[in-house]
Every structure is written in structure tokens, then in C-alpha cells.
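A.,

Following up on our hallway conversation. C-alpha cells first:
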């Protein structure tokens, strides 16, 4: 809707109307003014004519009065003064504008005195005078005088008595005219001698002839002239009298000017209306605009009169009146027209503006309508799009529901299923028909008694949404199924609860997977036994049971002996078979309630809880060991595996529940140290050992920097020559507090921590340098053997390190022997072969240390570039007591020689042992029998003494006796 105000501007229509209206108004006003002017002119003409006629008549009357007076002289001879007086008195009363009646008598120069005498009789002292420019004066002697003889009334005209007018040209001209014509003749305006005030007057003269004289011609008349009668008329009064007499003096609308001349000469002005001058003055004082508004149209009429032969001019004009006064019609027309025009203009303007406003309004409304229409169209389009989108969405929803694993359900306010779409039958195994009309708890047996069911019922009661509600149910075939449902309450527009709707999905497969994952998460994949996680759980339960029932709990940590060898030498699959077999045997050897878990690698944990009917005894542990020790069939072979077991019991003094496994581990470690294949109960002393391990570990970290290591050297003697041909470098740790620490106490720790790598490098460098030094000292070309740990063997820069050491020390590679244990290369034989060849290519010797300890396979020997076999001292120590060991040693020597390997026996302590070895062709020996490991100076002394081995047992025995 149009609310804004239009700016005011005269519209074209209104402007045209205004222009036309004003023009018409002006034209009409002008026309009316013209009419008014015409009317005024007509009225004026009438009034002017009346006035001119009145004046003409008045003047004629005045002249006529003189004619009457003159008739007196024509008829009476002589006319006495008395008669003249009597005759003129009524006339003077009647015509007050007459100043005087005169009778001029023509007096010759010679008659002057007589005349004066006669005049003096009337007025003593009177002389004949004349009027000059300087006033009245005694008339000079002249041939003839025309003297004022009779004079009525005398009063007021005394100055004229005896006055000779013969020198007054006007009078004389009028007299001549009158004389010649015989009729009255008037002068122009004169200055009268008797007139005190300068008042214009004129004199009308008629001749008086000698009675009886011939008057036929002008000359005769002149000759007959004896005098003349004259009336002195006050022209102004005369005119005033005329006007008053005709009541014309009251009309101030007409102004009158009477001139005693043919033209309107100001000097001859006889009469002027009172308003005439004032009007002229007023007019001059006004501005042009006011002049126009006040004077308006003026009429003027000039009329010529003949006054006794004298031409007079009468000028009649209309009095200046305000234009408005004279033109009420035109002014009214103008005003009315203006007003009307303005009104019409305003009306037109209003109409046009309203029309424009209406037009604008219409335009605006039209625009609004268009906009609304467009919006409507947009709305319709949007709605169509929305509907299409909705349909598409609906279709998509249907498709998605069909394609997805979900189904869609709706429940009424009583929580009964009213609609289930999306194929719950196919997806969930429950036909929709079986569910419709039933509540969820009616379809899930026992739901209301479960925790989740109760919680769900509370959610439903609170009309709360729920998500991922998982529950187990039974499908139409009676199979267990897991469903997961989401739902949210539905309220109508008034907020009234209408039910629930949501989705459901069959998660049976997922649940099974989860259960599997859960099982896997808590069980060892290989053996199916509980893993560390579940073990902790079970241990907690067992401890809790123990606390409740006051019965002990045993924790057994079972570690397979030499399992690494099985794994490495026979492959992982064989190792797995061993582990699975052991696991199964352990499981079979225990009760259902006991727990067997696999802790890691070859470690198992057993939790035994004591029952009321049976006390726990060490027999159980032995039973387990026996079970494990049963031969394990591996393909065509059988493999024997033993185990070491550590046992921790709860409750015992100072054994916290969470340290049970740790204590069992310590005990197992002790069992291992005690030679494997046994079990140990944990004691606090074991804990001390474990703690010592920790101490060693921390001290070991700085031992190298503090230069706390030294090497001892044990001679290796050739059995054939009895000469020292080499030595084994054996490390010693001189700890400031622990004293000299044997390698058995710290080498394993160094291996576990990885410190063996830098320590081993130090040993190799020191041993090579020392050997080179002895060599340089002329103590022989000896071979030095250095132990290589598993960690060193696996180090990437092993070859470079060996090469560097040889290069730096200058020792010939052939004088370095590297001792390797069998276990080093059992994990990856191919890689080991490769690495050994690389090492061998450096020129060093390779020996296998501790040969024969547990690893029964000799097949690899042919593949390895080995130079020496070192028979473990455990075999050597028993060769004289145990026929088995003796046989093993003899066969090792024979085998080595078959493989072109040199054999060295270590741990030779007795002459019998030496003898046996010699007899069986052993190449070299190393042992206390010849020398313990010696510090470098002692070893050097031994070399210098050229100590050697007796070549026969007898000699040796003799030597010993001597010693
Ligand atoms: N009972 C008895 N023992 C004898 C006899 N002859 C030698 N022995 C001892 O037997 C061990 C031989 O060394 P191993 O078998 O390589 O066994 C060594 C070796 O495996 C390791 N080891 C020593 N030094 C090093 C080293 O520098 N590096 C590495 N990786 N291991 C070393 O520590 C083990 C123990 O070394 P040791 O205590 O020095 O013990 C030495 C030696 O003192 C004897 O007649 N009777």
C-alpha cells in the first residue's frame, strides 16, 4: 500500500487548468471592465453633457442680464443714476456672481474735467484713473476716455469708479466687437480694479448708442457709440452658482474645469472642481501600481462655449476613483475567476494527484501482486520440489530400508507394534505378523526381569528416546537372534504421546563376532587358553575366593626348557605344536575350576584354588611336570620337552595378591638356574636375588664408562703337541661394591638389556689388541677366542665392527676365533648361513660353543662354515662317570672330524678326562686341569714360561705329583 507522500508539484493538467482559468478570468474581467468602462463613459457623457449645458445656459443667462440692463439705456434717455441703481439692484440680488453693473461713458479729452466734477458729486475726489502695471493711477490726458460712470453696487467697487478702461486692450477689444456687432461681447478673464482678492472675472459689454443715430454699418455704430453697459461677472461664482442651481455641485464624481479661453490655458481657468487639484496631487504622489488601482478609467469631455463672442472651454472629467470602485464587476469577475480557477486547479490537481496516487497505488499493488504471484509460484514450485523430494525421499527411504539391514517399526500409545516395514521377516527371522499387535516385552521372553529390560521399561515410561538397545530373542525357527533397536517417542501437535517409532537391525552376526573377539581378546589364539588379560581377571577372582573361604591359592609359572631351540631349529609350526600339546596336557591335568593361561611365548600360568575336599600339595606340580615331559610327536619324530616351574602361594607372609605372578616368575627363574626341569616355591630370598638382578642391571649401565671390565684369558692347549695354541677371552666385572662379578651373574642381564652389544665390542677390541701386543712381544702366534652373544649376532653392523677391530688392532683375522652358541642361528638358518659366510670371508675362525647341550640336530653343521666344535663341559665333566656322555663326546669328535672340523673340549679338570679326550682324538682342550682363566699379566707369565701339557697321562700324573 502506498504510504509515502508524493512531492508537491503542479501537474500539467492543473497547470493548464490554472493557465486557462487565469486567461479566461483575465479575458472575462477585461471584457467586463470594458463594459463597465462603457457604462461609466456613457454615464459620464450624460453627466458631462448636463453640466456643459447647465454652464452654457447659466452663462447665457448672465449675458442676458446685461442685455436687460443695456435695454434700459436703449429705451430711457438719459438714464439717471437713480434709475440705474434701482434697475440693477434686483438683478444684483438675483445674480450675486455679478460684481458690478457699469455704465461706461465715452468722454472726450475736453470733457474730462466736467466729467470728473460730476463724478466727484457722487464720490468726492474722484478723478479719472487708469490701471497700469503698477496699479491704479491718474489717467493721463487722452483724446477720449471710457470712464466708469454708473456703478452698482458702489460698495466694494469703489476702486473702479472713475476708472478709464480705454487702455485695457481686452475691454476695448470687447467694446469694439460689441460696438460693431451691436450685441454683447465678453472679455477674457480680467484682473478687476475693485477686486481685492485675485479673483478671476470677466466683463460683458454692450454698446449704448446715441439715441436715434443710424446704426447700419460698423462705422455708424462706432460713431453712434456714447458708452456701453457692462456687467462685471465673477466667473468662478457664476459657475458655482450655475452648478448649485442645478444641484450638480454635490456630485463629486464628475470634475469640472472651465476656462475662459478656447483652449485649456491654466491662466484662463475660471473654475475647477474642488477634487480636481487634490486628485492631481494625490495622483502624483501615488506609485504606478496604486495609480492604476486608484485612478482606474478616467473620462474626459471638452466642450467649447460661446460666451458673448468669447470662446470658453469646459473640461469635464470623471473624478479619480479606485479602480475597484469603478469596476466591481470586473474585479469580482477577476477575483471570482481567480478563486474559481484556483479551486478548479486545486480540484484538477487533487484529481490528477489522486489519479497519480491511485496509479502509483495500482502500480504498487500490481507490483505487490506480481511479487505475491511470483512468491506463490515459487512456493508452488518449492512445494512441488519438496513434494518431489519427499516422494523421492520416501522412495529412497523405502529402497534404503529394503536394501539396508534395518527395518522400520512403529508402536501405538500402548506400545504395541502397529507397523513394521523393511523385511523384518527376512532380516530378523521374525514375521511381522507375529509382532504386530504385541509389545516388545511380549515378544522377548523374560525381558521385564532382566536389568536391560527394566531400564528400557523405565525409558518407555519416561517417553525418552533410546538408541542401540541390544537384546537377545528367538526367531520364528527358535534360533537365538540378537537385535539392536533405536526408537524415539512420537507426539502429536498438542504434545500428546502417540507411541514410538524407530529402526531395528539384526546384529546376531556382529554379536557372534563380538563374542569371538571378546574370546580372542581374552584367550590365546594358538592354544585357546586364557591370555594375560583374562588371567588377571581369574587371578582376582581366585584371590577373592581365597579371602572369602580362607583357602590358599597357588600360582604356577611354567616355562618350557629350551623351547627356543625347538622353535628355532624345527620351525615355528613345530613350536606351535609343542605349545598346543603342552597347553592341552596342562588343561587335562587340572580340574575344570582351575585356570591355565598362556602368559607369553613358552610361559604358562596355572591358578590352583584349594578345595575343601582336597589339599593342595606339591604332587600337583609334579603331575604337571610329568604331563609336560611326555614325548611330543613331531612328524615322524618325538621330541622331549621339560619345564621349569615357579610357585607362589597366596596368602603367605608379605605376598600381595598382585605380585603372585611376579613371585612365581622369580621362583621359576631359580628353577631354571638350578638346571631346569624342576620346580621351586617362591621364597623371599629369591626376591633378594631378583632385586640383585635389578641392582646389577643399573650398575651395568655405567660399568663400561667407568672401565670396570677386565678380560681374563684361559689357555687352549693342543693335545698332540701339548703347546698353548690359543686362549679364550672371558670377561670379568670388577664392581667397587659387588666385588668381582662373574659373567654368569651379569651376561644374561646384559643380553636382556642389550648392553651386551657395546660390552661385546669392547671385549673383541681388547682381546684382539692384547693378542697383537703379545704377538708383538714375541709370545707366539696365538688364537684368541671371543664369545659372541645372540644380540651381537643380530646386530646390523657386526661385520663392520669385526673388520674395524682387526684393522685397528692389526691382528691377523686367522688369529681371531669367534665363539657362537647353537641357539644363535637356529631362528633363521638361511640368514645365519649367510651371515656366517660373511664373517668367514673376513678370515676369522668360527667355533660353536657349548656344543651338544640340548640341541640334537647336527644336520646344519655341514651347511655352516664352522672351524671348531667346542664340546660343552657338562659332557666332559661326566665322561669318566657316565657312559652316555662319554659316547656323546666320542661321537661329537668323530662327527666333527668327518666334517673336517677341529674339536676342543672345555671344562677339562682331570687327567682322566684329558686322557679320554686324547684317546678319542680330540684336538684341543681348555680347562682347569691346565689353567684357570688368568688375568693378562698372569697369562703373559704363563706364556713366557712356555707352559705346556704333558703328552701322556702318566707324564701328566707324574707332573701333578711333582707339583
Ligand atoms: N668348572 C669348570 N669351569 C671351567 C673350566 N674351564 C673353564 N671353565 C669355565 O667355563 C667357562 C667357559 O666359558 P663359556 O662356556 O664360553 O661360558 C662363558 C660364556 O658363555 C660367558 N662369557 C664369559 N665371557 C664372556 C664374554 O666376553 N662374552 C660373552 N658373550 N660371554 C662371555 O660366561 C660363561 C661363563 O664364563 P666363566 O665364568 O668365565 O666360565 C668359563 C670358564 O671359567 C673347568 O675346568 N671347570
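Then the amino acids I'd put at each of the 963 positions:
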Amino acid at each position: 500500500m502506498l504510504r509515502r507522500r508524493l512531492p508537491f508539484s503542479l501537474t500539467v493538467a492543473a497547470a493548464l487548468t490554472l493557465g486557462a482559468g487565469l486567461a479566461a478570468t483575465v479575458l472575462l474581467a477585461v471584457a467586463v471592465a470594458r463594459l463597465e468602462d462603457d457604462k461609466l463613459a456613457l454615464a459620464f457623457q450624460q453627466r458631462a453633457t448636463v453640466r456643459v449645458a447647465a454652464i452654457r445656459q447659466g452663462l447665457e443667462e448672465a449675458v442676458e442680464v446685461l442685455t436687460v440692463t443695456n435695454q434700459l439705456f436703449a429705451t430711457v434717455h438719459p438714464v439717471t443714476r437713480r434709475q440705474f441703481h434701482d434697475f440693477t439692484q434686483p438683478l444684483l440680488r438675483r445674480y450675486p456672481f455679478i460684481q458690478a453693473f457699469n455704465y461706461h461713458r465715452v468722454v472726450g479729452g475736453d470733457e474730462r474735467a466736467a466729467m470728473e466734477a460730476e463724478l466727484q458729486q457722487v464720490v468726492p475726489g474722484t478723478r479719472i484713473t487708469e490701471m497700469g502695471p503698477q496699479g491704479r493711477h491718474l489717467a493721463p490726458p487722452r483724446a477720449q476716455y471710457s470712464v466708469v460712470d454708473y456703478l452698482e453696487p458702489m460698495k466694494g467697487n469703489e476702486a473702479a469708479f472713475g476708472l478709464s478702461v480705454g487702455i485695457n486692450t481686452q475691454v476695448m477689444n470687447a467694446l469694439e466687437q460689441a460696438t460693431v456687432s451691436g450685441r454683447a461681447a465678453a472679455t477674457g478673464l480680467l484682473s478687476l480694479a475693485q477686486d481685492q482678492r485675485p479673483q478671476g472675472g470677466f466683463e460683458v459689454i454692450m454698446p449704448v448708442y446715441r439715441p436715434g443715430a443710424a446704426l447700419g454699418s460698423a462705422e455708424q455704430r462706432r460713431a453712434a457709440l456714447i458708452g456701453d453697459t457692462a456687467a462685471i461677472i465673477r466667473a468662478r461664482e457664476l459657475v458655482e452658482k450655475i452648478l448649485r442651481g442645478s444641484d450638480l455641485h454635490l456630485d463629486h464624481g464628475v470634475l469640472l474645469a472651465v476656462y475662459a479661453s478656447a483652449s485649456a490655458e491654466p491662466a484662463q481657468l475660471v473654475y475647477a472642481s474642488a477634487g480636481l487639484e487634490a486628485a492631481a496631487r494625490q495622483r502624483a504622489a501615488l506609485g504606478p501600481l496604486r495609480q492604476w488601482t486608484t485612478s482606474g478609467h478616467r473620462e474626459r469631455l471638452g466642450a467649447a462655449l460661446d460666451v458673448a463672442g468669447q470662446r470658453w472651454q469646459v473640461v469635464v472629467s470623471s473624478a479619480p476613483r479606485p479602480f475597484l470602485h469603478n469596476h466591481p464587476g470586473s474585479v469580482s469577475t477577476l477575483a471570482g475567476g481567480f478563486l474559481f480557477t484556483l479551486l478548479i486547479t486545486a480540484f484538477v490537481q487533487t484529481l490528477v494527484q489522486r489519479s497519480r496516487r491511485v496509479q502509483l497505488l495500482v502500480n504498487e499493488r500490481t507490483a505487490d501482486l506480481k511479487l505475491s504471484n511470483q512468491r506463490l509460484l515459487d512456493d508452488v514450485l518449492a512445494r512441488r520440489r519438496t513434494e518431489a523430494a519427499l516422494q523421492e525421499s520416501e522412495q529412497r527411504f523405502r529402497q534404503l530400508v529394503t536394501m539396508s539391514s534395518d527395518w522400520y517399526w512403529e508402536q501405538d500409545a500402548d506400545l504395541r507394534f502397529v507397523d513394521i516395514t523393511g523385511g523384518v521377516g527376512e532380516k530378523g527371522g521374525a514375521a511381522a505378523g507375529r509382532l504386530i499387535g504385541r509389545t516388545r516385552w511380549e515378544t522377548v521372553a523374560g525381558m521385564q526381569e532382566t536389568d536391560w529390560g527394566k531400564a528400557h521399561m523405565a525409558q518407555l515410561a519416561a517417553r525418552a528416546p533410546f538408541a542401540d538397545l541390544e537384546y537377545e530373542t528367538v526367531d520364528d525357527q527358535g534360533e537365538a537372534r540378537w537385535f539392536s533397536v533405536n526408537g524415539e517417542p512420537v507426539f502429536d501437535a498438542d504434545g500428546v504421546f502417540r507411541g514410538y517409532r524407530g529402526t531395528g537391525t539384526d546384529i546376531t552376526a556382529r554379536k557372534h563376532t563380538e563374542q569371538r573377539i571378546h574370546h580372542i581378546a581374552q584367550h590365546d589364539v594358538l592354544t585357546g587358553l586364557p591370555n594375560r588379560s583374562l588371567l588377571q581377571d581369574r587371578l582376582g577372582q581366585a584371590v577373592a575366593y581365597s579371602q572369602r573361604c580362607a583357602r590358599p591359592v597357588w600360582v604356577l609359572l611354567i616355562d618350557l626348557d629350551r623351547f627356543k631351540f625347538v622353535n628355532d631349529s624345527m620351525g615355528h609350526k613345530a613350536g606351535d605344536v609343542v605349545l598346543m600339546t603342552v597347553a592341552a596336557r596342562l588343561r587335562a591335568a587340572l580340574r575344570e575350576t582351575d585356570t591355565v593361561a598362556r602368559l607369553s611365548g613358552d610361559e604358562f600360568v596355572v591358578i590352583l584354588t584349594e578345595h575343601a575336599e582336597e589339599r593342595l600339595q606339591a604332587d600337583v606340580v609334579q603331575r604337571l611336570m610329568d604331563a609336560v615331559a611326555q614325548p611330543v610327536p613331531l612328524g615322524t619324530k618325538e621330541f622331549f620337552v621339560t619345564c621349569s616351574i615357579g610357585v607362589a602361594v597366596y596368602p603367605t607372609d608379605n605376598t600381595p595378591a598382585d605380585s603372585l605372578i611376579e613371585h612365581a616368575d622369580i621362583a621359576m627363574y631359580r628353577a631354571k638356574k638350578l638346571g631346569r626341569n624342576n620346580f621351586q616355591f617362591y621364597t623371599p630370598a629369591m626376591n633378594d636375588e631378583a632385586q640383585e638382578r635389578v641392582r646389577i642391571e643399573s650398575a651395568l649401565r655405567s660399568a663400561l664408562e667407568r672401565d670396570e671390565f677386565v678380560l681374563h684369558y684361559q689357555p687352549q692347549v693342543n693335545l698332540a703337541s701339548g703347546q698353548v695354541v690359543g686362549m679364550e677371552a672371558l670377561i670379568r666385572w670388577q664392581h667397587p661394591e659387588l666385588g668381582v662379578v662373574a659373567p654368569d651373574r651379569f651376561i644374561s642381564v646384559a643380553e636382556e638389556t642389550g648392553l651386551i652389544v657395546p660390552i661385546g665390542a669392547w671385549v673383541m677390541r681388547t682381546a684382539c689388541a692384547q693378542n697383537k701386543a703379545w704377538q708383538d712381544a714375541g709370545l707366539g702366534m696365538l688364537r684368541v677366542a671371543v664369545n659372541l652373544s645372540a644380540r651381537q649376532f643380530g646386530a646390523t653392523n657386526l661385520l663392520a665392527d669385526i673388520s674395524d677391530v682387526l684393522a685397528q688392532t692389526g691382528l691377523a683375522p686367522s688369529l681371531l676365533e669367534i665363539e657362537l652358541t647353537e641357539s644363535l642361528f637356529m631362528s633363521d638358518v638361511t640368514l645365519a648361513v649367510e651371515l656366517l659366510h660373511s664373517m668367514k670371508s673376513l678370515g676369522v675362525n668360527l667355533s660353536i660353543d657349548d656344543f651338544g647341550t640340548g640341541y640334537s640336530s647336527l644336520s646344519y653343521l655341514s651347511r655352516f662354515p664352522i672351524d671348531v666344535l667346542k664340546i660343552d663341559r657338562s659332557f666332559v665333566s661326566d665322561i669318566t662317570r657316565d657312559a652316555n656322555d662319554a659316547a656323546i663326546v666320542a661321537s661329537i669328535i668323530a662327527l666333527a672330524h668327518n666334517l673336517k672340523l677341529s674339536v676342543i673340549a672345555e671344562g677339562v679338570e682331570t687327567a682322566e678326562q684329558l686322557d679320554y679326550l686324547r684317546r678319542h682324538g680330540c684336538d684341543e682342550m681348555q680347562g682347569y686341569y691346565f689353567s684357570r682363566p688368568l688375568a693378562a699379566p698372569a697369562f703373559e707369565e704363563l706364556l713366557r714360561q712356555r707352559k705346556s701339557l704333558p703328552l701322556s697321562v702318566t707324564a701328566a700324573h707324574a707332573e701333578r705329583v711333582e707339583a
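The CA atoms of residues 726 and 783 lie 4 Å apart. Curious whether your intuition agrees with the design.

B.
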